[in-house]
Amino acid sequence: MSVNRISQTASATLLAGAFILFASASSPLQAQTANNVVCAGCVGSSDIANGSITSADVAPNSIGGGNIVDGSIYGNDLANGSISGVKVANGTIRNQDLHPEAKGGGGDFHEASNATFGLSIIPLTSADTTVRYAYMTLPAAGVVIVNASGFFDHSGGARSTGRCELTTASTIDVLYGKTVLYADGESGDENTIALTRGFNVAGPGTVLYRLVCDRYSGPGDLDIINPSLTAIYVPQRF
Predict the structure, then answer these.
(1) 106-234 has which fold?
(2) Which of 10, 18, 69, 160 has the least C-beta neighbours within 10 A?
(3) pLDDT in tens, 142-183
(4) What are the domain boundaries of the chain?
């Protein structure tokens, strides 16, 4: 092949290549829309407009507890009436799962007796004595109702007067104790005592409710026999 023929062939090839490049450059580029893309983590929450996904876009049972970050759903994220008893599995919500103000009531009691004689006998003196108590851990504001009972036994050949109060203190409120119960009797007498008192609860905390008694006056001896105390907490006042 001659040099002149080789030159002509090369020129034709270059012209063809230039035409292809010109045609490609003059044609507009078009983006292709991808369909059915499957890739883990390629779409994040920032790629989704707020409110663009509704319940109709979510297949039933496709979202489980493992797909929801703890603490990411609040009460205002749920429509009123959207969760009913049939949507909650038995045993999945316990008392500790509830808001403090939604928890149920609770209670405590304190009573004891002598195993031999069936009696609990506590001698009383002029010093205030906590004869029964209930130590309660309260989850929220509410009301505590305390009841106590027992009976005084007067002895020693002389008259005596006893008194008791339901209180959160360790002493009887002498000045303002409108809830103090007094009972007196001659030697050999017995007085049944019964007290009820309500206490406001300002908020969560631990409180010790006491039955405090003493021998208020008189030279005679005084015992309190079989005292008992019961305290009930309710989360709201009606």
Answers:
(1) Jelly Rolls (2.60.120)
(2) 69
(3) 999 999 999 999 999 999 999 999 999 999 997 766 789 999
(4) 106-234
